[in-house]
Amino acid sequence: MRRILIALCSIGLVLTSIAGEAQVYKWKDANGVTQYGEKPPEGQVARSVDVGRESGVTRDATSGGDCVSIRCQYERLRNDRMIEEAERRAERESVAKRAAQQPAARGMTFDVFARIDRGMTEGEVILRAGPPDYEATDAYRMGKTWFYYPTSSDPFTTTITMRGGRVFELDRVRKF
Question: Closest by alpha carbon to 45, among 61, 33, 29?
Fold first, then answer.
């Protein structure tokens, strides 16, 4: 009796899972990896994929057709890979373009450094030394730090710490 009850329960579970097939979605995550799931994340473009249980056939709802043959599945996989490679190539090109647009370090010569004093305003420093090569903000101390990187003619890194819009600390260190 117990075996019959277990068999009936398992048959019921199988029938329930076949009858209640959930919709499956396909999307690409932030790293460009294809993901599948029952719910796509908010803000992501996802395609609806109908997964048929019979004979392992997968149908893509956006293409509208069954892909049963191996050749058809190969073509679909190849097209997906080509699209992914094109997206990766475009991303690499945009990163390279952004890197090329960043200006080279201007640095700060000693005679300019010697004319900067504590208490000067940010505007005075920018007039004398120009904008910094890098700027970091410190929310804890409510200030910011400007960095002037070394160049081939001047191997020193100059660091200027600002608080309240005025020079708080100056530092110049030789980088080898």
Answer: 29
Cβ neighbours of 87 (radius 10 Å)? 12
Q: Token digits for 12?
A: 């019921």
Per-residue tokens: 63: 């293409």
Domain locations in the chain as residue ranges: 23-101, 110-174
Kindly provide the residue ranges of all beta strands, DSSP E only, lying in the chain, ordered along the sequence.
24-28, 34-37, 47-51, 58-60, 66-67, 134-138, 143-148, 156-163, 166-174
- How do residues 16-56 score in pLDDT, each as one tens digit? 444 455 577 888 887 878 887 888 778 777 787 766 544 44
CATH code of the region 110-174:
3.30.1450.10
Question: If phi over 0 gives left and psi between -120 and 50 gives alpha, with beta otherwise, what is residue 64?
Answer: left
- CA-to-CA distance for 7 and 52, rounded, in angstroms? 25
